[in-house]
Amino acid sequence: MALARGATLNHMSRESSDIRRLSNFYKEVFGFEEIESPSFKEFKVIWLNLPGAFTMHLIERSLLTKLPESPYSATSPVLDPSHLPRGHHICFSVSNFDSFVQSLKMSQEQPSRPLRDEEPVRYGDVFPVSGDLASRPVAPEDAAMMQSAETRVLGQTQRGGPASVMQAAATQNERAGFVGHRDTSDIAGDRGVTVRRTEVPGARITTESVGGQVVGQYVEPTPVGTVVGGTVAVDAAEQAAITIGEALEATAQTAGNKPVDQGDASAIQAAEVRATGSNVIIPGGLASSAHSAAAYNATVDRDVDKIKLGDLLTGATGKLPADKVVTRQDAEGVASAELRNNPNMETQPGGVAASMAAAARLNEATM
Question: Is the pTM of this model over 0.85?
Answer without folding.
Answer: no
